[in-house]
Amino acid sequence: MAAFAVFQLVLGLAFSRTGTDAKSFFAAGESAPWWVSGLSLFMSFLSAGTFVVWGSIAYDLGFVAITIQLTMCIGGLVTAYFLAAKWKRTHALTAAEYIGRRLGVKVQQMFTYLLTLFTLFTIGGVLYPVGKLVYVATPFSLETCIIALGLMVILYTAMGGLWAVLVTDVLQFVILLAAVLILVPLALEHTDGFGSFVEKVPADFFNVFNGDFTLGFTLAFTLFHIVFIGGNWAYVQRYTSVRTPAESKKVAYLFAGLYAVSPFLWMLPPMIFRSINPNLSGLESEGAYILMAQLVLPAGLVGLMLAAMVSATASTANTLLNMLAAVFTNDVYKKLINPEASEKLQVGVGRSMTVVFGLITIGIALAVPYIGGLVNLVLSVGAISGGSLLLPVLWTLFSPRQNATSILTVSLLSLTVSLFFKFGTPLLFDFTLSRAAEMSLGVGLPLVLLAIFEWIVFKDKAEDDQYIAYQRWYTSRASEVPQPVAENSTGAVSQNTFALRAIAISFALTGLSIAGLGINGGRNVGLIVGIGLIIVALGAWVGWSARTIHPTLHNPERED
């Protein structure tokens, strides 16, 4: 685990030379390969909660854990078809920049400050389980683990910018996938095959809906993920950091495709462990994933899987930190404090704010046990802020009628009502909403309010004045690119080549390490070495593709 952490840190720091201007530091020069952005989006969505929380549900209730995660596939498909290309066509570096142009600076600042507050708590909720995983596996205290991991994430995100985030995400994906591909067949072998596994679990274990996770909850969760995947400011960076709208769609389609398959792989180990040891109770089931790994994997690969889980969670933290730094630098510092700031100064401010925001989130992570626990923190933040602050902005991508007044009204009213039901009704009336009701209210109320504005309040208005002004800017922006430009004039070729070579070397070293761990373990050597060599081959292919990159003439503003 320590070796992997150091390797990832060195890999992230290697990208400090690519962040020479704001666009390269915050948006990877808008030239990242679509498959790199897609894998990064996928990894940014994973966390230790996937294996601890959903793993616990998979152990206790079975297939419903897969059902819940398939809602993320639906969210990705809707985003790919309707939203990703629209974000790319806004010509905005961040979602906040788009809000400023479409709705005005005051609305932009309100959304920026509110989402920054909620995002800081989200990152804190992400760092806490990372620290807890390492705390369980090492002799260090929980506080020490949280602080050390938080500082590591801050360091490589601050130095390498979005490129460091993207490339480390790809490496984490490969390691995690390799570990699970090794774990699943070994787990099935231990339980005497799939047929034996099915016979040993409860009769309702393969029900699509089970326990508290009903059809109603699943539908609410699906709607939430459409809004969250399509509108989360950190994920918007993945759609805008590629060259064209067509590539931004591929980013979301890749995410959806991975979430159509991965839940079956991710959730099988704890489900299989139920057939081996059905006696876990209460919070013990949260350890089902690691217990299954410890039972069948060689010691070195158990450490590698733990490292991959930790890294998957850290991926969410570094993504959100980079997004917050980008928003503050581009939409607060440059717009309000120093409009004449040079590119070098903007990068410096971005790095400084990454450190500041990172230190705040470490403090929040340390306080998680005292503010209601991890699940309560993360789910409540998502339910309260997701619909209220993300859905109204998504609506403006399609509606020419909405304006600053309507969007502010919907957002603030929805947020107030959600906060009242979260904190007010339990104290005043001893009434608390269920998780499904909380999530339905968080997304459903702003949806209803937006529909009222769209088709009742504004029914006689074809276009709002703010939309007309935005369209004028958009038209003038498109006309500013009269001729195609060469990719190498912006350094895109150099950045892409460096990134692909870093990925290739990382794959090769990872594949060889896995093969070595398999040989050293002495069990199931063929399977483990085979997976390792496949990763080495993938590294060779990525390295070869880096050699074939060459400067081409393109016009990213007009490609689709």
From TrEMBL:
It is found in: Cell membrane. It comes from the Bacteria. The keyword Cytoplasm does not apply. Keywords: Cell membrane, Ion transport, Membrane, Sodium, Sodium transport, Transmembrane, Transmembrane helix, Transport. This is Sodium transporter. The chain crosses the membrane at residues 32-54, 61-84, 110-130, 142-164, 170-188, 209-231, 251-268, 289-310, 353-371, 377-398, 410-429, 441-458, 498-519, 525-544. GO terms for cellular component: plasma membrane. CDD domains: SLC5sbd_u1 (cd11477). It comes from Persicitalea jodogahamensis. It is a multi-pass membrane protein.
